[in-house]
Automatic annotation (TrEMBL):
InterPro entries: UTP_pyrophosphatase-like, YgjP-like_metallopeptidase. CDD domains: M48_yhfN_like (cd07344). Residues 97-155 form the YgjP-like metallopeptidase domain. Coiled coil: none annotated. Residues 1-21 are annotated as: Disordered. This is YgjP-like metallopeptidase domain-containing protein.
Length: 188
């Protein structure tokens, strides 16, 4: 099947000194599983499968965190600025920060920097895109006036993303709704 990798080659190494612990690591294209010598075949089979699963999860988390690096965030901002803001919003810096108490993200127009709460790492991409467009629009219009919302409303999922964030705020008992006030651009 396209896009799926074949099962890795597995090498099992047994040790008489190893009593209870099991570990695994990659050595090139091979996964080396270290087991106690006293383990029977059924236990070996169980632990090899378990360690392969653990390695996959760990590697997926590492790939996922790379996807959400500051560099990936900057690249996403460039794409969104081109698509919805005529390429005019160009931040000097953008980075993930510890969860903010009262905001999903913030922009400092004077320094053209954007900070995004790590709380947003697990939201759907279209919600993160809305937040980024919102912050990028502050580089063009600092306040939340009608001109600001004209820029933000170019993003087609603005209203839907605002609803998602309101629900997320309510579910987590966060006080982040003030940031969404005037989201439709009708009053600011």
């Amino acid at each position: 099947m396209k896009g799926q990798s074949a099962e890795p080659q597995v090498e099992v190494r047994r040790s008489k000194r190893r009593r209870r612990t099991v570990s695994a690591y990659r050595d090139g294209g091979t996964v080396v599983v270290l087991l106690p010598a006293s383990m029977d075949e059924a236990e070996e089979e169980h632990w090899v499968a378990d360690m392969l699963s653990r390695l996959r999860r760990s590697e997926t988390r590492r790939r996922s965190s790379a996807r959400y690096s500051d560099e990936a965030l900057a690249a996403r901002c460039r794409d969104l600025s081109e698509a919805y803001l005529d390429g005019r919003a160009v931040p000097e810096g953008i980075r993930w920060v510890a969860p903010m108490r009262t905001r999903w993200a913030s922009c400092t127009p004077g320094t053209a920097t954007i900070r995004v709460s790590r709380r947003l790492r697990n939201v759907p991409s279209w919600v993160l895109d809305y937040v980024l467009v919102h912050e990028l629009a502050h580089l063009l219009e600092p306040g939340h006036g009608a001109d600001f919302w004209k820029w933000v409303d170019r993003y087609p999922k603005t209203e839907r993303a605002i609803g998602y964030l309101e629900g997320l705020s309510a579910a987590a008992n966060l006080d982040l709704d003030d940031e969404l006030d005037g989201a439709t651009g009708s009053d600011s």
